[in-house]
Amino acid sequence: MNHFYKRSIILCLLAGLCATLASCGVFRQGKKLYAEDIPPKAVVRDGLAVTLSDQKLTLFKEGKKVKDYSISSSKFGIGNTNGSHRTPLGVHAISQKNGAGQPTGMVFKGCKPTGEVVDVDAAGRDPVVTRVIQLAGLESDNRSTHRRRIYIHGTPEERYIGQPASYGCIRMKSNDIVDLFGRVHRGMPVAIESCTQETYLAAEKDFSKGSIQVPREAIAKLPVDGLKPTHRYRARKTGRFSRRNMASRFKKRTVRGKNTRRLALRKRSQ
Fold it and tell me: Which of 12, 121, 150, 159 shows the greatest Cβ crowding within 10 Å of its Cβ?
């Protein structure tokens, strides 16, 4: 019995050692997996790169680092699912900037200033403050970024900058977001990667890596406002309507010269 007990202890220690070695380069908090230090396949030469393993945002111009900032990404980890409150990966573009000229600490709701100003580390407060930089996902995996309202924005909880603490957005100190706000523009590419800044900088020097650019036609199609997400619908496992044909549920008809919308009944899906 004693021999069996010792053997169990040894196996547990070996399992723990294997888990530790497997997690090297992985950003963890508790049991949650956050980011792995994997080199990017393509890099931003002129734009922003967010590296989640070390919680950094770097501004590049012509392949050279101009400035970097400490940030705070989601405390729930990485992901693109609606309602997950996770930070999405992949290539994005800045779709809109909000808050120019507003005072530090100005609270925003729906990307609009409310008139309320809060102090840094105000007790019990966690609003979007100072500036808002809206993002739009450009890949199939992160197309929901704009609808999820994932922003780069200021936060009064500056004590948490440098560690995952947000609900999906990229948080920055107010002074840093003001500085960044003046350096970026609509259509600028933003790459969110799981690696460290060091790994990303090494990839910048590798000219065999692809260069991330946003075509003009793509910029023209970027959403202008973050206040009107796409059609909302209730997810049902056995629903009456097809999600793919959600738009076709609504048909326009004219009643006494007025356009109205009525819900077109559809057959229950088999």
Answer: 150
